[in-house]
Specification:
The protein is an all-alpha fold. It has one domain: ABC transporter involved in vitamin B12 uptake, BtuC. Helix content is 73%, strand content 1%. It has 14 helices and two strands, in the order ααααααβααααβαααα. Helix 1 runs antiparallel to helix 7, helix 3 packs parallel to helix 5 and helix 8 packs across helix 10. The radius of gyration is 23 Å and the shape is globular.
């Protein structure tokens, strides 16, 4: 027999120690619990104006999540989500102003209306791809303010004057004001809808949605109904953005056609890219960017606010080319390597 030298025996390299899945889930749940606790404490220590601003951040984050479900997870590009945001806002305003419907019932109504419109719009959009779909949604965003101003609909929409929305009053047994109650109401809706989106992405339907994004031909070969999943994703995306619009109407207490222009769609798209395409928690960071960065640029220089906003946007993209979510993953990976070394 031939003897094998000891140094010739291949010794497998030591693999990095990975935490069990249960530990990772426990750590993730702990982080979520701490974040929710900190969010719940904001109205107790912040002023009414800061509470209102954080409420707006959560609303924008929900609207960006709706766009993320369509673009980040399904690969359909949209420039028309300002139309769904405005449709949800006007659904709440019309139901409360004209029919005295309680504010909490207007949210599911706004979501249902936007889901139906998004689903129906998604049917003809099946024949369009990439830039052509973007142009179709761009046309929708441009048309929506004009439709809301149409004189035949003025009895419902209020025309160019818009509609005033009464802010919800807090329950009598709670020692908080209206701004704080709206904050907690929005936080509860955000938690439910973000959890629903996370469960959707992890489900079988979510895997089918992402398979269509990655390779439509392979997805069809596996038996996935492309038409059904694309239109359903368009509808669900519109539903999320419509609920965000309904919350926005309650927060601002006013709706007008010129509040839902193409600029809002572009802002949501910017928030999606900055937060991280395909990241659910990153949508909230995108909401922060959409709300605060234009105000910061305007406070630095009123005349050069647009230029400063562009410079800040370029710097953020240069530092975080994969968005905030990608930057966090990069930092965590570097920390893990540093601990192993």
């Amino acid at each position: 027999m031939t003897s094998v030298r000891e140094e010739q025996i291949a010794v497998p390299a030591a693999e990095p120690v990975r935490r069990p899945v249960s530990m990772r889930l426990t750590g993730r749940r702990l982080i979520i619990a701490v974040a929710v606790a900190l969010a719940a404490a904001v109205p107790l220590v912040a002023t009414s104006f800061v509470t209102f601003q954080v409420t707006e951040v959560m609303i924008y984050g929900l609207a960006i999540l709706g766009l993320n479900l369509l673009t980040g997870f399904n690969g359909q590009f949209s420039l028309g989500h300002s139309a769904f945001y405005g449709l949800g806002a006007y659904t709440t305003a019309i139901l409360m102003h004209n029919y005295d419907v309680p504010y909490y019932w207007t949210l599911p109504a706004a979501g249902a209306v936007c889901f139906a419109v998004g689903f129906l719009f998604g049917l003809p959009a099946l024949r369009l791809q990439n830039l052509y779909l973007a142009l179709a949604t761009f046309a929708l965003a441009n048309a929506m303010p004009q439709i809301l101003k149409f004189h035949a609909l003025e009895n419902w929409t209020g025309g160019v004057q818009g509609l005033v929305v009464d802010q919800p009053d807090p329950p009598s047994f709670l020692p908080i004001d209206g701004d704080q109650w709206l904050y907690y109401f929005t936080l509860a809706v955000i938690l439910v809808m973000f959890a629903a989106a996370a469960n959707l992405i992890r489900s079988r339907s979510g895997r089918a949605i992402m398979a269509i994004r990655d390779n439509p031909i392979a997805a069809a070969a596996m038996g996935i109904n492309l038409s059904l999943y694309k239109t359903l994703t368009f509808g669900v995306s519109a539903l999320y953005t419509g609920v965000a619009g309904a919350l926005g109407a309650l927060a601002v207490a006013f709706v007008a056609p010129d509040s839902f222009t193409i600029f809002l769609s572009i802002s949501l798209l910017v928030g999606l890219v900055i937060g991280g395409v395909g990241s659910i928690p990153g949508c909230l960071f995108g909401g922060l960017f959409v709300l605060y960065v234009p105000n910061i640029a305007n406070s630095l220089s009123t005349g050069l606010a647009g230029a400063l906003y562009g410079v800040i946007l370029l710097l953020v993209i240069f530092v975080m080319p994969a968005g905030a979510a990608g930057f966090v993953r990069f930092v965590l990976a570097r920390l893990a390597r540093f601990r192993q070394s």
